[in-house]
Amino acid sequence: MVKVFSNTESFNYSWEEVSTANWRKYCPWNEKSTHVIAVDTLSRTVDPATGILRTERLITCRQAAPEWLKKILGGMEESQVLETSYVDPAKKEVTMVSANLTFSNLINVEETVVYKPLSDHKTQFSQVAKITALCGGWQRIKNTIEDSLVTRFGENAAKGKEGFETVLAMSRRVFAEEREREKRGTLQAQAINFRQAQTA
Amino acid sequence: MSASLAPECNEVKERYDTCFLKWYSEKYLRGQGGTNENNECAAMFKEYQKCLTVALKDRGIDKLVEEAREDNKDNDALYLGRK
C-alpha cells in the first residue's frame, strides 16, 4: 500500500525569484527549517541538448521522527535525503524529486515538488509525497508508520511555506541592495571618468 | 547559505555556493549560462567536491547515494526527456 500526501500553494514572486531563492531555502534565514542541518551539492550539469540544469543535493536532517517510530527504526541522530532537481529555463519549470537514503530498506518516501509560473508575479508550488513502508511484518504497524508520516508531511507543509516566504523576502531585499551598490559603483566610475575628462 | 555536513568543507562550499547563485540568477536564467564545466564556478566546485568526496566516504554515505541514483534513473528519463 502506498500513502499519498499532496499540497498546492502559491507565492507572490516571479518564477525567476522563486527558483533562485529555492537554492537557499534551507539557509539560516529560514527559521522554520531548523531540522535541516546541512545541504551539499553532489553533482551539477547543464544538459547540452535541452539546457536543463540537473543538480543532486544531499540534505542532512536532524532526526525529527516521533519517539515510538525511532524505537522501531533504530536510534540514529541524523538522516539523509537525496534531492535531484531539474530546472527547465525554456518551460520555466523546476522539478525536484527527493528520496530518503536513511532507512531506505524499511521505508520509501519519494517527494516531488514542482515550481511553475502562474503569472509574471506569481508562482505555483505543488508537492506530492508517496510513502511506502517496506518492512515485512504486521500490516497494522506498516499502516501506522505510513499514517504518521502523512500527518508529519501535513504539519511540515504549513511550516515550509512560512519559512520559504521569509527566504523570498530576504532574497528580494539582498538582490535589491546588490543592484543598488552596483548602480552606485557605476555612477561613481562615471563621475570619475567625467572629472578626468574635464581636467585632461 | 546552509552548512556542509562536513565542517572542514564549509569554507570551499560557501565560496562555491555564492558563485553558483550569482551565475544562476545573472547568467543561467538569462540564457547565458553555457555549460557547468567551463563556467566561472567550475574550479571552486572541483575544490568543494575534492573535500566532500572524502567526507562522504568516511561516513559511508557514498554507497547510499549510489543506490539512490540507480532508483532515480526513471526520473532522469522523464525530466531530461531522454530515452
UniProtKB/TrEMBL annotation, chain A:
Domain PRELI/MSF1: 2-176
Residues annotated as transmembrane: none
Residue ranges of coiled coil: none
GO CC entries: mitochondrial intermembrane space
Record InterPro entries: PRELI/MSF1_dom, Slowmo/Ups
Name of this protein: PRELI/MSF1 domain-containing protein
Lineage top rank: taxon: Eukaryota
Automatic annotation (TrEMBL), chain B:
A GO molecular function held by the record: phosphatidic acid transfer activity
Keywords from the UniProt entry: Disulfide bond
GO CC terms: cytosol; mitochondrial intermembrane space; nucleus
Keyword Disulfide bond: yes
One Pfam short name: UPF0203
Superkingdom, natural source: Eukaryota
GO biological process, one term: phospholipid translocation
Keyword Nucleus: no
InterPro entries: MDM35_apoptosis
Family, per entry: Belongs to the TRIAP1/MDM35 family.
Cross-referenced PANTHER family: TP53-REGULATED INHIBITOR OF APOPTOSIS 1 (PTHR46403)
Protein name as it appears in the record: Mitochondrial distribution and morphology protein 35
